[in-house]
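To the wet lab folks,

You asked to see what we're planning to order before we commit. Fair enough. Below is the target structure as tokens, and below that is the sequence we designed to fit it. If anything looks off to you, flag it before the synthesis order goes out.
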């Protein structure tokens, strides 16, 4: 079988019915896959999808591509593999229906053989729609990779190569391999499958072969077990990977197909006394929830973007990701394998009760088995995957019927993969909305801003109620690990009520990480915490914003950010990959950073009243460059794992503050702003344990463009960081400019953006206003060569950077 990217030569346009005309709709245009059909549509406060999608509209779209089908393909089987089409994908060949896939996150295959016209052009069309079917920005269209598959009638099944490691000890490991072989001929065929296993060092460590006879129209599985001496085990701290290759040959020795998979050797253990153990070591999950979009790229999934997200999240201190609330992309799973990041992969956001008008609940009861099979098939060989989540905040979970569904889904996963653990993101309040209605009405009767500030405490109280305990017991009992959303009030309670229960904080408020991590480290049955969220995302717009309430016309809007809010504004990292101040606070709480960290409140807003949500963090920056008069009042926070912090400005002490007076791991100072060097010195027991310094930028700002890497592959991406800096590299955050990007050479501008949550600037560019002195441009190669990226801004010298593009080495 050859499996080739099928990304070029497509067009996209509005899907028209048989009796419709364009009537002003956008015309058909050429695109390269993966592609998001929603990203560049005009946003509006009147969008029916509203805050959920960041005020993007929905739509129905048609992709089309014409391919020449050679005569020699008559004796082959031809298919197109889609890793994800959002949503309700319908595939046609030459106008004939081939397949329908309602799940926008499920991979599926369209077998083209019955519909092809050989020796002539064939037209493939794919329809997709997105409209009021998601609680976050989903994007639309063929947003994940697509591949053309051409195989002999006898071939390896797609996703049919599976590896397990059933026995591992200090001396060796047993590797069990299985290869499914498909026979699409009218005759019985016998083939020999040969496997070879290559270790992390590139040396073959085991191998062998076995014959397999396959009846006509059937599939048969060839199996073998191999012993590997002194294996290098996969672990988040040292993610060693092995490579398995399978070759099928006919009776005359002719090669008919090949297959390959990457895997890791690791042992999982779980109990309430030790928690989660990997290879015998207790591992606490420093987790982040992540949505599937890629910021300025929209929903587009490209390997380089997924790898970058995983790498930067791990650099920020996370060792686990929860894919919220849908199956993770293959590319991100590969990246998690490489970088040693554990995965909770989630099946769905809904079961049979809907959360939005046109979500997947209507068809879930008919397709749940297919969805589970697709999830497991995608994840099976990935050592990073340790948890399957069967849902998120399911509405019917606390009912007897919901408990039946819980058991059905959990057992459905175990029937296909019993090597991992099953969880569910349970929110006892959401599961008991009818019974909670009166209590929630009382809470919301108060001032809306006060209600939002107290929401976390109210949720904790209600989640710890007897109602939640009793109504969720059966659904929780079917799980290996009980996932709780915003229910840390249950952690110690459940240790008494259910002494064998293992818990994970599947979703928690970001500002409570000091409390959360204290519980995780103190309670062995609590295996980790997943903050909402690790990386900011599109949609659920403004859920983590900070409002200044003295603005004329201000009206409380709760968790809803009014138009033109685009981003949630609640990630540790913003959509460009820039770490916000909360990220460094979390790193200190995790015990991964010894030095303190300076976070400065914007002096322009000093003393103004604010309204926040439980997902908000302080409106702070790590900078000492402010366009305010000397002597302006300013508040400085210092995050530190220490007893006290001394603050110095140009060597003169501003004062000493105790850490943890108002909030753990934080000292707060009120002072006057003056330019210079601000230094925080942290001490424990009178001894210095670390320091952090900020220096005021001097002189006029310069425009700087830096490529994160100067060499990329032709199917990769170039990430260009754009900053306003002084001569010594200090970012000038208080002098934002409109920057314009021009790309010359074999590449295009794939997206440009900043971390600004409230904006009307499009990601398509070519211009954007920097946010706190920063922006990110993403360049997509169109072929090998050198791409020149030029950046301009009014009143500043242009900046240029080059990116060398090579053909893929793999």
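Sequence we intend to order:
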């Amino acid at each position: 079988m050859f499996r080739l990217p099928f990304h070029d030569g497509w067009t996209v346009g509005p899907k028209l019915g048989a009796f419709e005309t364009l009537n002003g709709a956008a015309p058909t245009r050429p695109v390269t896959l993966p592609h998001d059909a929603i990203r560049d549509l005009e946003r509006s406060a009147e969008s029916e999808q509203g805050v959920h999608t960041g005020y993007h509209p929905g739509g129905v779209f048609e992709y089309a591509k014409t391919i020449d089908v050679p005569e020699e393909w008559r004796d082959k089987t031809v298919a197109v593999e889609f890793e994800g089409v959002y949503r309700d994908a319908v595939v046609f060949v030459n106008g004939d229906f081939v397949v329908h896939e309602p799940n926008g996150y499920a991979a599926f295959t369209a077998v083209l053989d019955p519909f092809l016209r050989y020796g002539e052009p064939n037209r493939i069309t794919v329809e997709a729609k997105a409209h009021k079917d998601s609680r976050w920005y989903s994007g639309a269209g063929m947003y994940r990779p697509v591949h053309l598959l051409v195989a002999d009638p006898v071939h390896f099944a797609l996703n049919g190569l599976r590896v397990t490691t059933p026995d591992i000890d200090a001396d060796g490991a047993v590797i069990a391999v299985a290869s499914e072989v498909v026979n699409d001929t009218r005759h019985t065929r016998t083939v020999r499958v040969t496997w070879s296993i290559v270790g992390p060092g590139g040396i073959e460590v085991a191998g062998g072969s076995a014959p397999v006879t396959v009846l006509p129209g059937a599939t048969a599985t060839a199996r073998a077990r191999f012993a590997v001496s002194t294996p290098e085990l996969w672990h988040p701290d040292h993610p060693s990977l092995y490579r398995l290759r399978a070759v099928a040959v006919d009776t005359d020795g002719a090669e008919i197909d090949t297959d390959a998979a990457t895997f890791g050797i690791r042992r999982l253990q779980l109990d309430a006394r030790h928690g989660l153990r990997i290879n015998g070591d207790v591992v606490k999950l420093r987790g982040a929830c992540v949505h599937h979009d890629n910021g300025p790229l929209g929903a587009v999934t490209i390997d380089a973007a997924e790898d970058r997200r995983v790498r930067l999240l791990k650099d920020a201190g996370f060792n686990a990701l929860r894919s919220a609330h849908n199956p993770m992309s293959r590319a991100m799973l590969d990246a998690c394998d490489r970088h040693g990041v554990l995965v909770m992969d989630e099946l769905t956001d809904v079961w049979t009760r809907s959360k939005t008008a046109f979500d997947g609940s209507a068809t879930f009861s008919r397709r749940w088995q297919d969805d589970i099979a697709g999830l497991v098939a995608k994840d099976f060989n990935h050592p990073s995957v340790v948890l399957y989540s069967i849902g998120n905040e399911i509405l019917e979970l606390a009912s007897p019927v919901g408990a039946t569904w819980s058991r059905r889904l959990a057992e459905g996963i175990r029937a296909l993969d019993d090597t991992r653990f099953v969880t569910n993101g349970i929110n006892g309040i959401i599961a008991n909305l009818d019974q909670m209605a009166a209590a929630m009405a009382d809470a919301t009767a108060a001032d809306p801003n006060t209600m939002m500030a107290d929401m976390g405490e109210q949720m904790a109280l209600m989640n710890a109620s007897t109602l939640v305990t009793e109504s969720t017991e059966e659904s929780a009992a079917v799980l290996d690990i009980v996932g709780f959303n915003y229910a840390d009030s249950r952690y110690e309670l459940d240790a008494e009520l259910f002494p064998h229960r293992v818990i994970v904080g599947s979703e928690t408020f970001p500002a409570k990480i000091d409390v959360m991590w204290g519980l995780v480290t103190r309670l062995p049955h609590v295996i980790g915490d997943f903050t909402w969220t690790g990386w900011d995302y599109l949609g659920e717009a403004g859920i983590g914003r900070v409002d200044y309430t003295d603005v004329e016309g201000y009206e409380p809007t709760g968790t809803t950010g009014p138009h033109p809010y685009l981003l949630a504004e609640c990630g540790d990292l913003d959509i460009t990959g820039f770490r916000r101040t909360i990220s460094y606070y979390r790193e200190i709480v995790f015990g991964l950073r010894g030095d303190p960290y300076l976070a400065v409140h914007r002096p322009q807003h000093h003393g103004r009243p604010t309204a926040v949500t439980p997902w908000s963090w302080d409106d702070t920056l790590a900078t000492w460059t402010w366009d305010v008069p000397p002597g302006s009042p300013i508040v400085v926070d210092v995050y530190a794992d220490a007893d006290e912090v001394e603050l110095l400005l140009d060597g003169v002490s501003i004062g000493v503050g105790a850490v943890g007076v108002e909030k753990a791991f934080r000292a707060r100072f009120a002072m006057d702003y003056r330019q210079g060097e601000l230094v925080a010195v942290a001490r424990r027991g009178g001894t210095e344990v670390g320091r952090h310094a900020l220096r005021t930028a001097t002189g006029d700002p310069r425009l700087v463009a830096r490529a994160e890497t100067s060499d990329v592959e032709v199917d990769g991406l170039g990430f260009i960081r754009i900053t306003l800096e002084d001569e010594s590299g200090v970012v000038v955050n208080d002098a934002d400019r409109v920057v314009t990007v021009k790309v010359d050479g074999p590449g295009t501008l794939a997206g440009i953006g900043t971390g600004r949550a409230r904006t009307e600037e499009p990601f398509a560019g070519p211009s954007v206003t920097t946010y706190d002195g920063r922006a990110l441009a993403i360049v997509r190669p169109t072929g090998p060569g050198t791409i020149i990226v030029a950046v301009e801004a009014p009143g500043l010298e242009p900046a240029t950077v080059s990116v060398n593009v090579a053909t893929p080495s793999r």
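Structural context that might help your review: The longest strand covers residues 154-168. Residues 324 and 427 are 14 Å apart (CA to CA).

Thanks,
Computational group
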